[in-house]
């Protein structure tokens, strides 16, 4: 269409040139009838060419509008491939959201488990601290004077009684070592000079030593 427009423009230029020549000739005092006829014909052709050019311009603009409308229609109507891609993206987003939710649930569960374990450890430490404090604060009832190993009677301890009003035969006293309980002794014979106490259960590898303090069983 641009080539046709160029040709039309060239034709118009030639006709305008011819009109200029004719007008120059017509300015003479005695123009012939044939020249006037030729001038009228050229004007008619020029008008037709102008009309054709206007029609072509209108047609060109109409086609451009149709192309723009078609492009908009294509852009607004997604193809099957576009729809499939959109659905795939939606599925991927849903999967990522599900994984995120699962990670959040796992993190919350881990926090609860950690809090539970920490609470248990803290509670256990608190109990141990309380036990150690109770043992440390317990009143001394007696002290080990000597630990004797006898082949016939077995091991027994001679004790110095600090609080005789609380230490009587069959009284079970705990052997305090630092803030722990080494073992238990059961008081047998009690005299003014002291008493005899035999072990209740085993002491494992540890044995009572002179100076070990004997206390009542702490209330745990």
General description of the model:
With 220 residues, this protein is of the alpha+beta class. Among the domains are: 2-71; 139-215, Beta Barrel (Elongation Factor Tu (Ef-tu), domain 3). It has three helices and six strands, in the order H-H-H-E-E-E-E-E-E. A six-stranded antiparallel barrel has the order 1-2-5-4-3-6. The longest helix has 58 residues, at 80-137. The protein is rod-shaped, with a radius of gyration of 60 Å.
Furnish the topology, listing elements before pairings.
Elements: H1 2-26, H2 33-76, H3 80-137, E1 140-150, E2 154-161, E3 172-177, E4 180-190, E5 195-200, E6 213-215
Antiparallel strand pairs: 1-2, 1-6, 2-5, 3-4, 3-6, 4-5
Helix pairs in contact: 1-2
Q: Which residue ranges are poorly predicted, with pLDDT under 50 across at least 5 consecutive positions?
A: 27-31
How many DSSP helices? 3
> Proportion of β residues?
15-25%
CATH secondary-structure class of the domain at 139-215: Mainly Beta
Radius of gyration: 60 Å
Order of helices and strands: HHHEEEEEE
* Net shape: rod-shaped
> Can you give the helix content as a percent range?
55-70%
CATH arch. level architecture of the domain at 139-215 = Beta Barrel
Strand order within the widest beta sheet: 1-2-5-4-3-6
Structural class: alpha+beta
How many beta strands in the DSSP annotation? Answer: 6
Major sheet size, sense and barrel closure = 6 strands, antiparallel, barrel
Nearest-integer average pLDDT = 79
